[in-house]
């Protein structure tokens, strides 16, 4: 039987883990897709393509041209445009789609979380929480805070934040995972009063939440946007592999 051809929309640790498992399995041929945002991406095992598809119709065409049997969307939970396009494109191409989404974080006893729906909402709420702010939100949305001139920001991201930026900004170019001790010393060294983050989930960057809990520090937490409905979901790489192995072969 021919190997099942999988297009894996990536950009996350889970996507890399799944790509490694599929690349090592002769029943699958995996092509990972990256958006191309990072100048030096960590490349997954197996075949890799880089760059957008030009929307859902471009993706549907790509799926047909490359005879893809199954689409897996393992993008970040906040990559909503790509997920919406994946849903439309899989329907148009008539192939199954799986979402691989790590569970979101949940507030625990001792947490002081304040939930917001967007980064603009977080920026509007910030004046109530303190002037020294740690932004752990990636580089694309730091500009939501550019209008806050009385605040001092520390932003941690993989690459320099997009413009416009807040006038008082320290950028830390670092890649996780981070330990609780790392996070405590960062918060103390920069005399941070409030953390802004998105509910990404996972363990690679969750230590900051433990550190905030320990210090009694408020967290402005951006809720996860809803993912398209009616699409099968896996919460772990193991579940995704089981689902892929259960897919019936496509008609030739
Ligand atoms: P987005 O807003 O949902 O997507 C914007 C556009 O980028 C899409 O319409 C698509 O362009 C292209 N794109 C996104 N993911 C792609 C992929 N895996 N392969 C090919 N093209 C892709 O996404 P985003 O929030 O900018 O995230 C971009 C990438 O960074 C994603 O792969 C995501 O997994 C990763 N990432 C995002 C975050 C986050 O917080 N958003 C955090 C960590 C990693 P076309 O319309 O031209 O097809």
TrEMBL record:
Parts forming coiled coils: none
InterPro entries, A to Z: Precorrin-6x_reduct
GO terms for MF: precorrin-6A reductase activity
Keyword annotations from UniProtKB, A to Z: Cobalamin biosynthesis, Oxidoreductase
Highest taxon of the lineage: Bacteria
A Pfam entry, by short name: CbiJ
Pathway as given in its UniProt record: Cofactor biosynthesis; adenosylcobalamin biosynthesis
GO biological process, one term: cobalamin biosynthetic process
PANTHER family for the chain: COBALT-PRECORRIN-6A REDUCTASE
Protein name in the entry: Precorrin-6A/cobalt-precorrin-6A reductase
Organism of origin: Tamaricihabitans halophyticus
């Amino acid at each position: 039987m021919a190997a099942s051809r999988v297009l894996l929309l990536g950009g996350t640790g889970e996507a890399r883990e799944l790509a490694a498992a599929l690349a090592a399995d002769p029943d699958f041929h995996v092509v990972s897709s990256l958006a191309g945002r990072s100048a030096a991406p960590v490349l997954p095992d197996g075949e890799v393509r880089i760059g957008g598809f030009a929307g859902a119709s471009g993706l549907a065409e790509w799926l047909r041209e490359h005879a893809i049997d199954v689409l897996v969307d393992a993008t970040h939970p906040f990559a909503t445009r790509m997920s919406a396009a994946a849903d439309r494109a899989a329907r148009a191409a008539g192939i199954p789609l799986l979402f691989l989404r790590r569970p979101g974080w949940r507030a625990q006893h001792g947490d002081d979380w304040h939930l917001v729906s967007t980064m603009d909402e977080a920026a509007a709420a910030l004046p109530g929480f303190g002037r020294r702010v740690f932004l752990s939100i990636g580089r694309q949305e730091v500009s939501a805070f550019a209008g806050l001139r009385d605040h001092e920001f520390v932003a941690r991201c993989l690459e320099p934040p997009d413009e416009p930026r807040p006038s008082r900004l320290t950028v830390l170019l670092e890649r996780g995972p981070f330990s609780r001790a790392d996070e405590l010393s960062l918060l103390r060294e920069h005399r941070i009063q409030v953390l802004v983050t998105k509910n990404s989930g996972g363990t690679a960057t969750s230590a900051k939440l433990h550190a905030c809990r320990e210090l009694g520090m408020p967290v402005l937490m951006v809720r996860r946007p809803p993912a398209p409905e009616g699409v099968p979901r896996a919460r772990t790489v193991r579940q995704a592999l089981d689902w892929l192995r259960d897919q019936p072969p496509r008609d030739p």
